[in-house]
Design a protein that fits this description.
This protein is mostly helical. The chain has 6 helices and no strands. The radius of gyration is 17 Å and the shape is elongated. It starts with a helix and ends in a 9-residue tail after the last helix.
Length: 164
Amino acid sequence: MPLLACLILAVVGCGEEDDASSAGGKAADSRLTKDEWIERADAICLKTEDAQAEIADRIAEIRSRSYRGAFKKFVGVVEDSVAETRDGFDRLRALRPPADDEAEVDEWLSAVNEMLGTYDDLIVAVRKDNRRRLVKAIREGRRIDGEQEILADLLGLVDCRTVF
């Protein structure tokens, strides 16, 4: 939940190839093995996390320059982070997990997608200077984050536990 953490700090505290055709000549519509799926998903999450870290540095720079007005200045930067996160999410959705794990993967991806919606709510709350909506979005984000983390654990993911 690095993106949410950055947003909270800023507000309150004021890759790899992932298509199946690139894996050993497999057909584009073939399913990955569990190990292949975990490896590729975690690689996507690492790449997404790296992009988020760069953006988090930009947020920290905005905060260090001037506290006054930082509340709204960083929204564009956070939107960049959300865009990077959505890109990672789209690449995860494109992976074809083993049929036996598809329902669990879909449940996890649903929770991640819900988290992305929370990021949108946070951005709107900041743009409208609506602290009540901001607090609600933060609470909801924390709830969803815990859920998606548990689901990631159950799938055997390591690097995807804390990215979304």
